[in-house]
Every structure is written in structure tokens, then in C-alpha cells.
Amino acid sequence: MTSARNRYTSLAIAALAAVGLAACNSAPSSPTAKGGGNSAGTPVNGGTLKIIAASGPDHVDPVSAYYTADYELLRAYTRQLLSYPSVDYGSTNDAGWTRTVTPTADVATEVPTQANGGISADGKTYTFHIKPGVDWNSSPARAVTSQDFAREFKAFCNPAPGGFVGNPGYYLSTIAGLNDYCDAEQAFFANAKVHPATAANITAFQDSRTISGIATPDPSTIQFTLIQRASDFLSMLAMPFTSARPAEYDAYVPNSLQLDQNTLSDGPYEITSYVAGKSITFARNPAWKASTDPVRKAYVNAIVLTEGVSSSQTQISDIEAGTEDITNDTLLNPAALPQLEASHNPNFKIWPWSTTDPYYVFNLRSPDDNGAMGKLLVRQAIEIGLDKIAVQRAYGGSAIGPIINTVIPPGNLGYQNTNIYPDAQGAGDVATCKADLAKAGYPNGLTLLTLYLSDSTNTRGFEAAQASLAQCGITLKGKPEQGSSIYTDVGNSPVNNQPNRYDIAQVAWVPDWFGNNGRTVVQALFDNPCVVNTVDYGCFSSKQVDTLISQAETASSPAAAAAAWSQADQVIMRSAVIVPTMDQGFAMLSSARVRNAIFNPDIGEHDITNLWLANA
Asked: What separation in angstroms does the CA of 194 have from each of 190, 201, 267?
């Protein structure tokens, strides 16, 4: 996610263009990052890190968290069996990139392999051992156990509003018995009058059943049995979804305000104040032991997130003035990037990445305007009519990132540089757009309700698309929303088949991990249940794509997997399910006192647990 990031989704911020194509199963290819140099000097402990945000995270509960703004904060108070280290890198071809995108042991004593006995000979059983000394900040402090990790998986399919795991497809298709468990839970709570989704009822269901593919033979051992071999399973376990979950959370409905205000921590920081929509304050967690944590250093004493500043230019001004230190959820103002680059500010750096940001997704079930979004010719008219160059310009121009025309962005497994919609090299073909609309039964055009993030940069992107498609006779009626709600609404499939929800959404996606990651793009976005919190936003479904996904995930070699992923990409693009526009990277700015401000591509933001303050 983020998914996730971001993912649900990552707000990929301005970046340099990715260059060239990567070989199968290799890291994305990008130019060397510019700037940097603020990591020199001896680390200093102390001080309060100040983070500025428009609307901040949309989930505190790690089960539901699937957004870059969430991930940045989750790093401070949650831990996983495996995590991604934060390593400075200059390009996605160097050793630093490889290290930072490779899972390492976090709560687990080691990364399981066949050589150390952690992975069975058939590749279907993974055994993890939990290191001693990892504790909850409960009163009194107590050890994190294997049952705490199993509890998180049991919470994946809970019936709470917005509480369903951000991307269930990864786990339902790999862990034995998880799909059956989720089906049973959904069936049990289907009749809300008989079985209301209260905390007590959810807990009682989860305590009365097991997941056949997850075993906890003792408090320090957890074992996963897979349906079939999955070479990317370790990457799945490094996602925040799989954080340990304390027993105290059973007292609250998942993803509820009550849980958010009563969190526990096994990370270096604990939440001491949570005021929804306004602020979150963190202090050091006295139960955390640095000796148990190889990926978090926790230099600062406290962290304060302040929400409510939606202007990216205001955020830049506050950071340059030193009243704030880093951002959380807002794109840097594209107009400011040339000056920031020219200043050679050591606290400004453009990091190579690999994204689909932004893209436009169609709500295939919308009944608006005679069900226009369900008509292939209408969607194809938009595919060929959109001026992607104008959208690119809105985000900062060609230096920010290249135009793309495929589901899979450059540098990822299965990417091929193709465009099945000839669109005047990205400028849009207005005549063909109009002709397709007329064939579809809309000779006088149509109006489409469009969701987009309300920050100033994404508003510019929407306005560029709006002006472009107006030439075809398509009116985009804007529906701006904050980051804390837009992805909840765009993924709320059970009600998105009703009028006036949305027809098009301007969103973004970053692969949830890198390397062998075809699953994180095609499966994530186009093979998810049409339920609350889905990231298959338009509820696209294709048996042909499903078959190709299965072939790719069980392929005997990366080359074979890449071929299947590429075919799936072509099927999806012919179905005109989304309109990809750009591959952006990440432009990061921090205040003059911040040191070691490293971008972690799997978090999709700063790693707030590894930076320090020069004046602390």
C-alpha cells in the first residue's frame, strides 16, 4: 500500500522519470536520486519531531491501514515478524535499493529459509520463532506472542465497517484455510439483526474457530501452511497488515474510534493523545528495547502530527521556516520543485520509485447517465481522449515522471512498453473520442462524477483532466475529498452501485513490494472481492485475468511469470478498466534540523524512527 503503500493508496509525490526497462525479477530502473547529504554526522537523541498533514492517516488499526499516511506512523507503534530496513540509495539499481526492499527479521529471530529449516522442502510451510524481550506497553508489560500474530489474521475478515483487511487477496490466495475462515465469518454476520457486529460477537466468533494454515504450537512459534508454493510470501508478511495484535483490542470493534484511542504499542513509540482529525502525539514506549529491534533506532523523544493544513505551499513554507519538520499526506507543490532543486538544499531529495500515479479508475457498476461507465466504448473514448501530457504538466512536467499506458508501471515484473490506444503520443485524440461517444449513444456528450483528493496538487491534476475531456464533450463534475475519506469511499463497493456515488476516481498506486512483485499490481487491483475496503475499486472481474494471475503466481520461472502478468495487463487495458497516466517518484523535503531523512519505498514516506534532529 498501499498501499500500499502506498496501496490504499500511496500518495506518490513528485519524482524523476524512470528510465529504461528492468529485466524480469529485477528492481525498477531509475536515474540517480538528486540532493541528499543530510545524513552526515553523529546521531543525536532527543527533541520532538513535528509532522504536518492535511488530513493525516485514515486508519490507526493496522488491519485496515492501507495508505502512505498510515504507514509512516505505523512504523512507530507496530512491529511485524519481518520488516523492511531503511537504507540510503541513489538509484533502484544499486545495493542500497536491494537492501531496503528485501525483508529482514524484525520480531522474528531470523528470516526463514530452507537452509535454516524455516521453510519446508516443498516450499509450503514457513516457521517463525519470536525473539525474547519484545513486549507490549501494557500494565504490566508483557511479551508479544505467536497468538498475537495469529489474532491479527483472524481480524482480517471482521465485519466492522471499514475494518476488513486492506488487501485480502494476497493472503486468501496463499494461506491454507484463511478463505474458508473468512467465508464463515462473513456468513455468520450476514444477518446483522441476528448477529450484530459488536466487539463481543466478533471476538466470540474469532475465539471459537481456527485457521487451518496458521498454527501456534507455543507462545514463541508461529507456523504458516500455504495452499501452494508462493515465492513472495515473505514480502506479504512484511506488510503492516500482519502486525502483532494485542488481546486488549478484542474489547473494541476493529477500526473504531474507541480502538484508535486505546492503542497498545510494541514499537519504540506509543500514542499518548489521539484527537481525530486534529492531532496525534507519540512518546517513547518504555517497554521497547532497542536490542530487540534491528530496523528502528528511535532517536527523537516525541512525535507530534498536526492535521488541517491542506495547502502544499503552506506546508513547504512551514518546513523551510522550521516550524514543522516533515510531511505526512500531501504532495509537494510542483511549482516549487525547480526552485528546490536549484537551491541544492541538502534536506530536499528526489528519490527514484516506481508508481502508477495518478490513474483514473471507472466505477463499472455506476447507474449514472444510463450506466455510462458500464459501456466499453465510453471508457475507450476516455482512454484515447485524455490529454496525458496536460495531466503530467499539472504535476510538474516531464521531469516529474514519464507518461505510461499500461497497468504495470515500468521496472516491474511483466512490464512492456505498449499503448493499445493511439492518442497522439499522449496528447489525446479528440476526434476519435467524440466518435466513440456517439457510437456508444452519447452524441451530445455526458457528465461524469469524479472523485479526487482535495489537496492543491491533485486538484491541478483533476482540472487538467477536466479541461482535456471537455473537448470531447465529457464534463467531469468534481467531488473533492480528503485523503482520510476518499479511499474509504472509492472502495466502498456495496454502495457504489447506487446513483451519485462516483463514476471516475483519480487515485494512485504503488506496488506493495518490489522485485518479484507482479502480485502487487495485477492481483491487488483487479482480483479483489467486491466488498467494503476493496482496492479493485471499479469491481472489475475477468475469468481470463484470473487464470493468468494463477499462472503467474505458480510459474516455474520469473520469465514465465512475467509473460503471464504482461498478458493480464493487455486484457485489462483492452477492457478499459483504468486510464494510467504517469510513473512518479518521491520528492521529499524536511526542515534544516532533520538528519538522516531516508525515504523507505515500502513505507512510501519518511522513516520517522530513523531520523534525528540536529538541535535536539
From this structure: 9, 11, 39
What pLDDT shows up at residue 455?
86
Give the contacts of 139 (CB within 8 A, at least 6 positions apart): none
What pairing do the DSSP bridges indicate for beta strands 326-327 and 48-52? parallel
- Cell output for 311: 495547502
Asked whether the beta carbons of 3 and 66 are under 8 A apart, the reply is yes
Task: Give the pLDDT of residue 222.
Answer: 98
Are 148 and 155 a contacting pair, CB within 8 Å? no
Pairwise CA distance, residues 183 & 174, whole Å: 15
At residue 9, the pLDDT reads: 35
pTM of the model: 0.78
Closest CA to 598 of 124, 203, 72: 72
Question: pLDDT digits over 563-577, tens only?
Answer: 999 999 999 999 999
How far apart are the C-alpha atoms of 40 and 528, rounded to whole Å? 44
Would the CA dihedral through 84, 85, 91, 94 be positive or negative? Answer: negative
Return the residue matching grid coordinates 500494565: 139
* CA separation for the pair 363, 141 (Å, rounded): 47
- Maximum separation of any 2 CA atoms in the chain, in Å: 70
**Residues in a beta bridge with 218:** 221
pLDDT at position 560: 86
What secondary structure, in 3-state letters, does 121-184 show? CCCCEEEEEECCCCEECCCCCEECCHHHHHHHHHCCCCCCCCCCCCCCHHHHCCECCHHHHHHH
Give me the pLDDT at residue 87, please: 94
For 356-580, CATH number out of 3.10.105.10, 3.30.2130.30, 3.40.109.10, 3.40.50.720 equals 3.10.105.10
- Tell me which H or E stretch contains 594: strand 594-595
Type of residue found at 201: N
Entry field: residues in the chain:
616
Report the pLDDT value the prediction gives residue 5, as an integer from 0 to 100. Answer: 34
Q: What is the pLDDT of residue 39?
A: 60
What's the angle, vertex CA 109, arms to CA 108 and CA 114, rounded to 5? 95
- In the chain, which residues have pLDDT < 50? 1-37
Domain boundaries, the chain: 356-580
